[in-house]
Each structure stands twice: as structure tokens, then as C-alpha cells.
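Translate structure to sequence.
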């Protein structure tokens, strides 16, 4: 495994998934920087200069600001400093279900904001991975099997610890680049071969070599898994 300089970009890390991702990444030997203020471009600049990967965990609330806006800011600052980090975006399984899912009806901006954040990744010029977890549980890490799915209607439960492990594993395994997938727990032994699990995923339509977005591959915007177009 190659040690990465990894940025965990999550507003309000205390008690959040960001803390679990940070702990997991450090256990794996990565050099981790915590970025908690995504509205401060200087903080973003300092954090991502020289970074190999950025795990983006949007805070709850306005998805246009906290999901789409965060991706735009990171991509713009990466351009300014000449960085090309692998972006790993935490999205939501509800994005694939479209406007009829109850979660998407709680806030009219939630679905379009999240979908725009995903599209920003796919149509950008940086390597990326979009992860769509299902409902969270507090089960211990490795208590169940872990299944990756590219069915946009994926549903189920996922342990926060397993999700954190997946976000870090996506940084470590090149096969995760250029993909969008959901994941959930089911009965069975814990995942033993992360590389094989990522290798079974199909790349998003239009993803360039190395999982770079369509913009980096000099291609027009493309459709993507998710059951909707934005």
C-alpha cells in the first residue's frame, strides 16, 4: 500500500463520520490533514496543496452550499495551486432514487444540490469516486458482509465504521476511481479483498483514464447512474 497525504474535508469533525475516516486513515498509515472550514479558501488552499486525495464529507443543510459548493471550491483551489488530488465524495443513496424518495422531499434543494455535486465531480478534470451510503447504523466494524451496488435504487443499512473504511479504501485502490456506487451491509463475513470489490465496479460512462472526470478527458458531459439528469 502506498501511503497518501490525505485531507478529510468535513465541517464540524467532532462526533462525525469525519472523525471515523480520520482515525481509519491514520491507522492505515496515511498522513491526514483535517479541513473543517470549507468556506475559507485559504484554509482549503493550505490543506490541499500537495495532497494526494481529499475525502469530502458535506455537512447537513443547504446541499448547494455544503455539497456542490464544497466540490467547486476544492476543484478551483486545486487548479490555483496545481494540485490533482483524487476526490472521494460522500453522497447519498437517496440521490439515485430521485424526487419521490422521502428524504429528498424534506428539502427541495437537497436532491438537486447533491446531484449537482456529483455531476461536478464527473464532469471535472480530477480523478474521483462518488460513494452513496444507505441508512447508517452503529454496528461495530466488520460485523457484517459489505456489498457494493451500482443499482440506483440501492437501500439497506451500513455501519458508520464500515463506511469510513470504504472511504479510505477508495483512496488506496485505483479501481475505485471514476465510479459511483452505493454500499450496504448484509449477513456474512466482513470484506477481505477491497481491491477485488472495487475491480468489479464499472466505471461511469465518460470517465477518462485513471478515473478522471469527463472534463479532464476532454469530453462532453455525460449521463450517469442515478435515475435522473441534471
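Result:
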Amino acid at each position: 500500500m502506498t501511503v497518501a497525504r490525505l485531507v478529510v474535508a468535513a465541517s464540524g469533525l467532532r462526533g462525525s463520520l469525519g472523525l471515523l475516516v480520520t482515525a481509519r486513515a491514520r491507522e492505515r498509515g496515511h498522513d491526514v490533514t483535517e479541513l473543517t472550514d470549507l468556506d475559507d479558501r485559504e484554509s482549503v488552499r493550505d490543506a490541499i496543496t500537495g495532497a494526494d486525495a481529499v475525502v469530502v464529507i458535506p455537512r447537513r443543510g443547504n446541499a448547494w452550499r455544503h455539497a456542490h459548493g464544497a466540490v467547486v471550491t476544492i476543484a478551483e483551489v486545486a487548479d490555483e495551486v496545481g494540485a490533482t488530488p483524487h476526490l472521494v465524495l460522500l453522497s447519498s443513496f437517496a440521490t439515485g432514487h430521485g424526487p419521490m424518495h422521502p428524504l429528498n422531499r424534506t428539502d427541495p434543494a437537497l436532491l438537486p444540490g447533491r446531484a449537482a455535486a456529483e455531476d461536478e465531480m464527473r464532469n471535472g478534470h480530477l480523478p474521483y469516486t462518488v460513494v452513496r451510503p444507505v441508512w447508517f447504523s452503529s454496528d461495530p466494524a466488520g460485523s457484517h458482509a459489505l456489498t457494493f451496488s451500482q443499482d440506483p435504487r440501492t437501500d439497506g443499512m451500513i455501519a458508520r465504521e464500515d463506511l469510513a473504511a470504504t472511504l479510505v479504501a477508495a483512496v488506496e485502490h485505483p479501481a475505485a476511481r471514476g465510479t459511483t456506487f452505493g454500499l450496504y451491509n448484509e449477513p456474512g463475513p466482513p470484506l477481505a479483498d477491497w481491491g477485488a470489490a472495487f475491480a468489479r465496479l464499472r466505471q461511469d460512462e465518460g470517465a477518462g483514464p485513471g478515473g478522471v472526470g469527463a472534463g479532464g478527458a476532454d469530453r462532453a458531459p455525460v449521463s450517469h447512474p442515478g435515475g435522473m439528469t441534471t
